[in-house]
């Protein structure tokens, strides 16, 4: 059954712990012509809800997944095929499809993270793929490497991709002496040295974008290209998100803070809030976040302007922004002359989660061209 | 980093991490070092359930095996707390409170108030609660309401390993006397627990499940049974909101009342005896403050007004079951 005219739509694996997902509804009718990146159906996991976007173009010939039903990862949810393929062949494909078992090896590969002992302390990271180019994903303030759950595997198809937890974040060291953009940039630089990464394509979100620019300015040989997603460091303005996130002590305060991250507020699930709350309650996190937020964003202003240090050292740069970003205004997107710019509709600060395949395709093209 | 460990291990880890962090923390109690009759302290069980196993080797002189006199060592713990230490005293079965209650309710609970705020008593009294362990009437009670009744005591009863660790660390760091109730039938149950230290604030209930038809409020062992009932009811189209109180004093009234305002129905599940219980307390307050939101009569699912039977068959019927909880939801939904 290796008929490449027939493409299965399968339950994706979003994130390290996902084993199954619930189909909550179809967005398209049978017979719809699909382009790559079109949202096809909506899926909910215990962590997050999202829409599955088409990885292939064709006609949606068969909707197999039933709404309000839970399916294991890789289960057949639908079929895309050319109109020329007879219905009987589609029937045969559906009938003979066997969901690949979630065997242990596969599971380990999908959820593996490691710890690097770096000059900044123990930093957790994930690695995917083994392509020639190296990509490093740098999360934003209060985030962690799991933010990249919709991106890391897609980018890993053509590159060696690393995603790290910055100091004070995720499961990395919570010790953060002299919190500053320079400290965070040194941590990234030390992480690259520890893993023997001479240079890489940096993909930074929010504060991670400012770190990428700062590294490009201070050590240009390490940065082959930059992708800056709703990036800090491109202007003085910032919303109340950082203050609200740091101040939130319980779910009731944290949920409205996290809702500022998304254009579609329904993406902030109970589990997402719980996971962030569990992180915030680890010893040392509050101090690290307070110190870092004060140094970078105290008084609700961005204090660092790494873009102004780039000058001639600027690597090929791509700026991506969610048009509805409530954290850093989309107007900052225009503040990096010489960069390619994409503003994406119906997406907020977490545009790389909300419009994952569009962002993934932009990043892949940028890296290929750099 | 989180990994699956049992509630027993989570409590042990909380004690170890706090003893490492703060030299004023020490533990004391009957058999918490010894108990197995093995060769030396290192081979000891660490309490009848092994909760404090291994700590004596890591903290010499800070794991005190006490005589079988609760009145003496609970009094000593309260006194040590008033003098600046942070003792964690294990009252093996909380049922034994009877012989040391003066030290708890008339001394520890009163110091801060009677000395005008100049004294603090950061003592934690840990102990086992609950039925289902075939330990008969004197070792199986859920006495949480007795402690909750007393102003000046904080009363905690976790339902899972994650909460147990965070709440115990919070208890040790808290400057007031805390009664930490551990359900013996939850010790072996595993959950994802971070390796790192963390705290869970008191007075924050955990909403385990959203629902619009009925609110189920519980704590301890019966939280799992409430979830089981909610999952069963969901298949019939009845969506229950399940609230784990986690801390009984202080109690997160806002979360309970917000939920009842939304659902209009309340089932209180409590393993304690029914009279003057956590269930009756919550029912009364909700009836008083949310009367207009209620669409049906509040239901209470509790143990009967009887000692815990030794007969295993009867003991299994004693603790509120998922079936009883589901029946109570259906009863209030029928109105």
How much of the sequence of chain B is in beta strands?
Answer: 15-25%
Element order of chain B: H for helix, E for strand: EHEHEHEHHEHEHEEEEHEEHEHEHH
CATH level 3 topology of the largest domain in chain A: Rossmann fold
Distance between the termini of chain A: 38 Å
Major sheet strand order of chain B = 3-2-4-5-7-6-12
SS-based class of chain A: alpha/beta
How much is the radius of gyration of chain A in Å? 21 Å
Give the strand order, joined by hyphens, for the main sheet of chain A.
9-10-12-11-13-14-15-16
Task: Please bin the fraction of helical residues of chain A.
Answer: 25-40%
User: What share of residues of chain B is helical?
Assistant: 25-40%
Architecture per CATH nomenclature, i.e. the level-2 architecture of the largest domain in chain A:
3-Layer(aba) Sandwich
Alpha carbon gap, first and last residue of chain B: 47 Å
Strand tally of chain A, please?
16
**CATH class value of the largest domain in chain B:** Alpha Beta
Number of strands of chain B: 14
Regions with little confidence, pLDDT below 50 for 5+ residues of chain B? none
Mean pLDDT of chain A: 91
Q: Indicate the CATH architecture of the largest domain in chain B.
A: 3-Layer(aba) Sandwich
Radius of gyration over C-alpha positions of chain B, nearest whole angstrom: 20 Å
**Overall form of chain A:** globular
Description:
The complex is a heterodimer of chains A (370) and B (335). By secondary structure, chain A is an alpha/beta fold. Chain A contains eleven helices and 16 strands. Chain A folds into two domains: 6-101, Beta Barrel (OB fold (Dihydrolipoamide Acetyltransferase, E2P)); 113-369, Rossmann fold (3-Layer(aba) Sandwich). Chain A has helices at 87-96, 104-111, 152-156, 181-194, 207-218, 241-247, 251-259, 270-280, 285-297, 351-354, 356-369, and strands spanning 6-10, 20-26, 33-34, 39-44, 49-53, 58-63, 69-72, 76-81, 114-118, 121-128, 134-138, 160-164, 200-205, 223-229, 317-322, 340-344. Chain A has an eight-stranded mixed sheet, with helices on both faces. The two termini of chain A are 38 Å apart. The relative contact order of chain A is 0.12. Residues 103-109 of chain A have low confidence and may be disordered. Chain B is of the alpha/beta class and 335 residues long. Helices cover 35% and strands 20% of the residues of chain B. Chain B is built from twelve helices and 14 strands. Chain B has helices at 7-21, 55-58, 70-82, 101-108, 111-114, 144-148, 161-173, 222-234, 253-263, 278-289, 312-318, 322-333; strands at residues 2-6, 25-29, 63-65, 86-93, 124-129, 154-156, 178-183, 190-194, 206-209, 214-218, 240-244, 247-249, 266-270, 299-302. Chain B has a seven-stranded mixed sheet, with helices on both faces. In chain B, helix 1 (7-21) runs parallel beside helix 7 (161-173) and helix 8 (222-234) packs across helix 12. Chain B starts with a strand and ends with a helix. The model of chain B has no long low-confidence stretch (mean pLDDT 95). Chain A binds chain B through residues 124, 171, 174, 249-251, 270, 278, 281-284, and chain B through 1, 162, 166, 194, 196-201, 204, 207, 210.
